[in-house]
Amino acid sequence: MDVTYEGTKRELTTDKGVLRYHEAGDPDAPPLLLLHGSGPGVTGWRNYRGNLGFFAQTHRCLVLEFPGFGVSDPWEGMPVLTAGSSVTRFMDALGIESAPMIGNSMGGVVGVNLAIKKPERVAKLVTIGGVGPNLFSPSPSEGLRLLQEFADAPDRDKLVRWLNAMVYDRSLVTDELIEERWEVALNPDALKTARAMYGSASFEMQQQFLAQADIPPYWALMHKISCPTLLTWGRDDRVSPPDMALAPMRLIPDAELHVFPKCGHWVMIEAKQAFEATVAAFLAR
Question: Which part of the chain is the AB hydrolase-1 domain (predicted)?
């Protein structure tokens, strides 16, 4: 099975531009969508390249690159909302009515919003950190503050500080990882998206909007999620501290929570084998 970058990359032309994605596994196997997170230099490939070989044994794995992160063409609008629209457009184009989804951080929020608003599209949902409100921990968290600092004035040292906050084991932050993240982080589309999501000015505007709007935050609607949901979390996550998991665990009717020790924000990377085994059992039920 070919799970290399070149062997799995695909393109899909839409009326809003080109969506790029990676596909691995038997085309006739059940589909599995893998939705990436946010942050400097992120791509769907980098989030899930280490997991494709495992999940492609049982599923047709589709790793969508969200608009505005330097790989797919950018779309106008708030990145989390355009990401959700890109998922449904992507599924429609490939003829996928419903599928289980794995979402890392922002990708988990995208999956939650789809499960709330378009429940028929989400068969099962796996989230990796990032979902819910900070209940006991400071907000923004340490990791988000470092992300804010980078978005306001990007430089290499800030990127390294943020990457170190993403993991429990800092040996994972290699020179190679820093270089590849730095290269994509400087992409103009990616910088624009980072400022829109995490820049200090944008963050303040978002907080003011939420305080004045009549629209409830997404996590207040999680009781509407009807699909089986697996919440996965790193016990030592400094971006999305584990207390955030308490609200979705309680509010989502059919939710279960698995916390991985000695693990930061990137559960699928730092607790790779345990994560894969846990998710495979959940998907197989």
Answer: 30-271
